[in-house]
Amino acid sequence: MEDNKMLKVSSNPHVRDCESTTTIMMDVLIALIPTTLFGVYNSGDYRMYSALLIFITVTTCVLSELLFQKLLNKKTTINDLSAVVTGLLLALNLPCNFPLWMAVIGALFAIVVVKQIFGGIGQNIMNPALAARCFLFLSFTSHMTNFVIDGVTKPTPLAELKNGDVTTPLRNMFMGNVGGTLGETSTIAILIGAAYLLIRRIIDYRIPFAYIASFSVFILIFGDNRFDLEYLAMHLCGGGLMLGAFFMATDYVTAPITPMGKVIYGIILGVLTGLFRIFGPNAEGVSFAIIFGNILVPLIEKVTMPTVFGYGKKKKGGKKA
Amino acid sequence: MSVLTFRGGVHPKEGKELSKSAPIRKVLPGKEVVLALGQHIGAPASPTVAVGDYVLVNGKVGAAQGAVSANIYSPVSGVVKAVEPRMMANGLKVNCVIIENDDKYEKAKDPFKCDGSKNSILNAIKEAGIVGMGGAGFPTHVKLSPKHPKDIEYIVVNGAECEPYLTSDYRRMIESPEVIVEGLNIILSLFENAKGIIAIEDNKMDAIIKMRGYIKNYDRISIKTVYTKYPQGGERTLIKAVTDREINSKMLPADVGCIVNNIDTVCAIYQAVKNNQPLISRIVTVSGDAIKNPCNLEVCVGTSIADIIEEAGGFKGQPEKIISGGPMMGTAIFDINTPVTKGTSAILCFSKDEVAKHEASNCINCGRCVDVCPAHVLPARLALHAEHGNVDEFVKMKGLECCECGCCSYICPAKRNLTQSIKTMRKSVLASKKK
Ligand code: SF4
Ligand code: SF4
Q1: Residue range B154-177: average pLDDT?
Q2: Considering B251, B275, B299, which residue would you say is the last residue of a domain?
Q3: Suppose A111 and one of A64, A288, B89, B429 were both cysteines; which one would form an S-S bond, judging by CB atoms 3.0 to 4.6 Å apart?
Q4: Domain locations in chain A?
C-alpha cells in the first residue's frame, strides 16, 4: 500500500512522442544553417557586419520576448526557441548592410506587436518575421531595397527582370551570388534546408509545392515572356520565392491546419505573388502575398473542413435493399 | 502480399520485445477473489450467492440483468465472504462478490450445455458470460445477434494487437492457433454468408505464418496482413483496413456487414462451446520497465493485481505509473490491490511517467494531430471548444466521432492533453443526450 501513494494517474495516452515545440524549432534552425552561412559569405565586405546583424535581431527577439513576459508576469517561453527562429528569419529578410537600429525596431515589432500582443506563440495571425519585413519595407523603403554585391549597389535579378534587361546569369541566381536579402539569394542553399525539413517531416510538402506550382502556372500565362521557361526559372530563383515558400509560408501558426486548406493556401500564395510581381509597382511580392494569405487562413480553414471518417463515400455492403 | 491499413495513426515505441518470448503461464489466484458484478458494458449482474454460501469453480455468482449484461462465475471454490462495493482499478467502486479461496478448486458440474445448433451456441456464449476482452467489455452474445444475420459478410478476428507492450494475443496466436481458428469457425457457423478474416499486424510475421498453416482446411477463413500502426486494431480502423468500409460512431459494424472480435474473446467462445467452460480467466501481459520479469500470464478474473505483479517477479525499482491495458488507451491505476476483470489486457508498470515529464504549452498549429487522427476530425480545434465549453461548436465539428484513441495527445509537440479534453466533453455531451 505504501507504494501506491507514489503512483501518478492521468488520462490516456500514457506515452508521448519525443518531438516537442523546441525540437521542431531546433530543426528549423538547423535547416537555415546553409542559407545563413551563404548569406554571410555572400555579403562580401559586409561579412562581419551581416553576422552582427543576425546576432542583433536574434538577441533583440529573445530579450524582448523575455522582458515582455516578465513584465506581464507570464510564463517565459524563450526556451522553445521560436523567438530565435523569428530573429533569424527576420535577419535573412534584410539586406546585408541594413542599419542595426532599424533591425532592432523590426525585431521589436515582430515579437511585441505581431507575436506577444496577440497572446504569444501560436496565437499570432501573421508571420512575425514577415510582418516585420513588410513594416520595415514600408517605413524604410530605400534601406530595404539597397542591395550591395561585390562592393557596388546592384538591382536584384527580379528588378532587372521587371525592367526587362537581365544581366545576371541564371546560374548565379541558383547559386546565390546575386543581390538580394541575406537569406533569399541562394536557391541551392535554401533547397538543402528545405529537403532536411521535408525529410524530417517538419514541414508539409503541400504548401510549398502548391505555392511554387501555382506561381509557375501564373507566370507562364501572365508573365512578360509567356511560356518561357528560362524567364520562369529566373522568377523562381531570382527573388524571395524559395525562402518564402519553404520557410515562411510553412510557418505552422499562420497556415491552415486542414490538409486541403494547405493546398488552397499554397495556390492562393502563388497567384498573389504572381499578381504582385507582374502587375504591382514593386519587383518583389512574396512577403506581401504571404501576409495577405495569413489573413485569409480562417476563411480557408472554414471551407476545407475534412470529411470525417465514416461520413464519406457511399458505404458498400451491409443491409441491402 | 498486400498490407492493408487506414489513414492516420502513430508509431509509438513498441516495447513488445520485453514479453514477446515469454510463454503463457497459468497462475492461481490468491486467498481472496474479488468478482466485480459490473465489469462489462450494460447492466451489472445481480449476485446469486449470499455471504456464507459455498461456491465451486465455474459456479455462477452473478446473473445477467436484462438483454445487455453478462453472467459472472467463480474461478475458485470457497466461501462467500462478502457482497459489497469494492474499489476497481479505475478508482470507481463497484459491487463485488468476494470469495475466500479454499485452494481445493472443486469443480461445479457444467453450468450449461451446447449441442452445436445455432441457438445453443449463442446460448452457450451468453451463459458463459463472454464479453469483448479487448477492454470495452461489450457482451459478445449481443454482438453476435444482429438484426439481420444473413447480411453479415465478414467476421473479423482482431489480431492486430496495436497497443505497445501488449503480447497476449501474439502468444495466443503462436501457442494455440487451432483454438482461434476453431473459435472463428464456430462464429462462422452462425452466419452462413460470412467469411472469416484474421487480421494480424506485419510486425508479427511468425504469427501470420503460423496461423496460415492452420487455416488450410477452412476455406471460409483467410489471414490478412495489416500495417503495424496504432490504432490498427481499433474496430473502425480495422474494418476500414480489411474491407475498405467505413462506419461512424452512430453505426454498428453490422451496418456494413461486419462483426469484429478480439482474439481472447474468440478463445473464450471456443471454450464455452466445446468445453462448456464459462469465462473465468484471461491472458494478461505484465510488462514495463519497472517489472522484473515481464511475462504473459493466464490469470483468473478476480485475482488481485498486486498478486500478478508478484508473479512477474515484482517491481524493479519504484514504479511511478501503473496502467491497466495498453499505454495508449489504458487506465492509470490508483491502487494495485484491485482485481483483474474480464477486460484487463495488461498491467504495465513504468518507472517514469512520460506524461508528468512534460508541461503543456500553446498549440503551434502544426497540424500533426490532424494528420494522425483516425477519425479525421480536427483535434486541436475540438480540444479548444471542449476547454471553452462550446458544446454546439464541438458537436458541429463532429467531436463525437472521436474514438479516444490518444493519437493526438501522443503526437502533439506542444504536449497538449487533447484526448483528455475531447474525451471529457464527449462524455458530458453523450450523458446529456441520454437524458
Ligand atoms: S481526436 Fe479522438 S480519434 Fe482523433 S486522434 Fe484524438 S483521441 Fe484519437
Ligand atoms: S498537434 Fe498540438 S500543437 Fe500541433 S496542431 Fe495539434 S494541438 Fe496544436
Answers
A1: 94
A2: B275
A3: A64
A4: 21-304
Look at residue B268 and tell me whether its pLDDT is greater than 50.
yes
Which residues in chain A show pLDDT less than 50? 1-4, 315, 317-321
Identify whether B106 is part of a domain: no
Residues in chain B, overall count: 435
At residue B81, what is the residue type? Answer: K
Distance CA B97, CA B35 (A): 5
Q: Are strands B258-262 and B154-159 parallel, antiparallel or unpaired?
A: parallel
pLDDT tens readout for residues B39-75: 888 888 999 999 999 999 999 999 999 888 999 999 9
For residue B73, give the nearest of B95, B58, B53 by alpha carbon.
B58
Cell readout for B237 is 480502423
Confidence of residue B237 (pLDDT cuts 50, 70, 90): very high
Q: Ligand 1: which of B162, B369, B398, B402 to mutate, most ligand atoms within 8 Å of CB?
A: B402
Verify that B384 and B241 share a domain, yes or no. no
Residue that is last in its domain, among B275, B303, B337: B275
The C-alpha cell at B30 is 490468491
Q: Which residues contact A307 (CB under 8 A, 6 or more apart)?
A: B376
The ipTM estimated for the assembled molecules is 0.89
Least confident of A21-30, B83-92, B405-414: B83-92
The pTM of this model reads 0.91
Write out pLDDT tens, residues B91-144.
889 999 999 999 989 888 888 888 888 889 999 999 999 998 887 789 999 999
Index of the ligand 1 atom closest to the CA of residue B8: 5
pLDDT digit string (tens) for B340-395?
A: 999 999 999 999 888 888 889 999 999 999 999 999 999 999 999 999 999 999 99
Q: What is the domain extent for residue B393? A: 368-434
Q: What is the pLDDT of residue B432?
A: 85
H or E segment and range at residue B284: strand B281-287
Residue B100: in which H helix or E strand, if any?
strand B93-101
pLDDT, tens digit (0-9, with 9 covering 90-100), for B149-163: 999 999 999 999 999
The amino acid present at A210, given as its one-letter code, is A
In a domain, B352, yes or no: no
Question: What's the rounded Cα separation, in Å, for the pair B150 and B193?
Answer: 6
Whether B422 lines ligand 1, by a CB cut-off of 6 Å, is yes
Closest C-alpha residue for ligand 2 atom 1 = B412
The verdict on a CB contact (< 8 Å) between B413 and A21 is yes
Instruction: Let me know if residue B138 belongs to a domain.
Output: yes
Is residue B324 a part of any domain in this protein? no
Contacts of B284 (CB under 8 A, 6+ apart): B168, B296, B297, B298, B299, B308, B340, B344, B345, B346, B347
Burial of B406 (0-12, 13-18, 19+ CB in 10 A): buried
Return the CATH number of the domain spanning residue range A21-304.
1.10.3430
- Asked if B321 and B350 count as a contact pair (C-beta separation under 8 A), the reply is yes
* B269 and B127 part of one domain: yes
Closest-approaching ligand to the CA atom of A253: 2
Closest partner CB to B354 (pick from A7, A11, A15): A15
Say how many domains are in chain B: 2
A-chain residues near B357 (CB < 8 A): 16
